[in-house]
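Q: Here's a chain of 164 amino acids. Please give me its 3D structure as tokens.
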Amino acid sequence: EILKGTTNHIIYEPIVLEEVVKDIKYDLAEMIHGKDVRIVYNFTQSPELYSSKVYIHSIFYNLISNSLKYRKDEGVCHISINAMKSDEAVTLFFSDNGMGIDMDLHKDKVFGLYKQFHSTVNGKGMGLFMVKAQVEMLKGEIDIHSEVNKGTDFVIRLPAACSI
């Protein structure tokens, strides 16, 4: 516990990404149980981050739970999470094969507060707003690519200072 860094009241500490995913799978067990869900991840290039455990957990939780909420009715719900490290950044890739979002219609609203894009799913429209806000608090960037009935990809770049 010696020398945990703080910047702007954000506590930075070592985070094992695999543990974050395992915790969230446990937290979301009710949403996953009895469903055909595959969550695969590869963190071999960047197994750990030095960042805010609270923010990273929240970002992962919101993206994974959205993938579960907005999965297609038929077939396997496939969620893939990967991390890559370079000199400049740690890049996290989240991908699913769910309902997707019509980016022609909603590109400017995707990360807006109280925005929802599927009336068939209960939600508050706060998840992606929170994800973007937390990524930006960590001095990172987030991009989205999505196609209706094909799925959604998120790319999150965090400064290299976040890598271990």
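Q: Can you summarize the key feature?
A: The CA atoms of residues 3 and 13 lie 9 Å apart.
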